[in-house]
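User: Hi! I have a protein structure encoded as tokens and I'd like to know what sequence might fold into it. I'm fairly new to this, so please keep things simple.
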């Protein structure tokens, strides 16, 4: 039973790298009759609104009964998920003994004690199917309808697991999720260039992303990202910089590898013309690298604008 003013049984919080997992969890919960806050469901409602302010109302206890964060290495390194987490934990303190934050961990992540006490029970995504997690969530929501605080889940000891990809790991799924994240991040960032006299156009497709930065109608930067396998393996191929014809030549790509440290698929980025980070990147980190290239091109060419 929803409380006064509450609209959602659960609010799902996640980093971009876990979007596919969070989406599946949200859909499973909805199939069990729960009302779930998931950002993709409120795109039209958020049109023109300050999503940070609105999301704080959701995760801060005003609109949701519980918050389910998918805690990962990416989560603790991402600004927006951490803002949601801070809002949720601040309200959890006010709420007292009735649990509000129901954490699920993804991969081999160390949760800082200052953010979540080690005595707080959590579930490991590797120990359950998504369907099982949804049923556990539904049981918690429906079991608290009488207003009584449900018992906290028993902390699950971290058992050593083989550092190999799980059976349900999909390189293609990671690429698709990564392409979606890149599109979202470019859409969020494009307006920030307007104050400097640049216009950023972003177009997304089922298997492609195109970005074009212009100044007074002149193209300054172009990027085309394509999900394809014509080079002998699934990867995101890229034509970036200022090619004469967008997409006329591939000069970078990102291939998926299983990261045993984080317990998830990540991207190995290769740039044919420059030194690249010798590490695996999350989708958000890949965006940061591409966006930095945009900034570098603008700074290099700014003084030559007609």
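Assistant: Happy to help. Inverse folding works backwards from shape to sequence: for each of the 306 positions I chose a residue that suits the local structure. Here it is:
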């Amino acid at each position: 039973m929803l409380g006064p003013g509450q609209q959602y049984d659960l609010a799902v919080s996640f980093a971009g790298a876990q979007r596919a997992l969070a989406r599946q969890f949200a859909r499973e919960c909805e199939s069990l009759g729960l009302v779930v806050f998931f950002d993709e469901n409120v795109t039209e409602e958020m049109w023109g609104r300050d999503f940070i302010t609105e999301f704080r109302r959701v995760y801060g206890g005003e609109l949701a009964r519980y918050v389910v964060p998918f805690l990962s290495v990416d989560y603790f390194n991402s600004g927006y998920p951490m803002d949601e987490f801070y809002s949720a934990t601040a309200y959890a303190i006010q709420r007292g003994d009735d649990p509000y934050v129901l954490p699920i961990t993804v991969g081999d992540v160390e949760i800082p004690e200052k953010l979540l006490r080690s005595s707080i029970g959590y579930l490991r995504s590797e120990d359950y199917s998504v369907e099982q997690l949804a049923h556990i969530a539904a049981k918690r929501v429906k079991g608290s309808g009488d207003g009584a605080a449900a018992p906290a889940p028993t902390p699950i000891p971290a058992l050593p697991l083989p550092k190999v990809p799980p059976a349900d790991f999909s390189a293609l799924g990671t690429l698709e999720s990564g392409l979606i994240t890149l599109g979202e991040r470019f859409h969020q960032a494009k307006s920030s260039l307007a104050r400097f006299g640049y216009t950023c156009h972003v177009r997304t497709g089922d298997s492609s992303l195109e970005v074009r930065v212009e100044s007074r109608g002149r193209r300054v930067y172009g990027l085309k990202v394509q999900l394809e396998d014509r080079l002998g393996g699934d990867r995101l191929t890229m034509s970036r910089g200022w090619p004469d014809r967008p997409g006329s030549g591939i000069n970078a790509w990102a291939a998926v590898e299983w990261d045993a440290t984080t317990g998830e698929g990540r991207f190995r980025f290769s740039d044919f013309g420059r030194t690249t980070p010798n590490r695996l990147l999350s989708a958000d980190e890949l965006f940061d690298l591409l966006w930095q290239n945009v900034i570098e091109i603008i700074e290099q060419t700014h003084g030559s604008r007609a």
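A useful reference point when you look it over: The chain has seven helices and eleven strands. Feel free to ask if any position seems puzzling.
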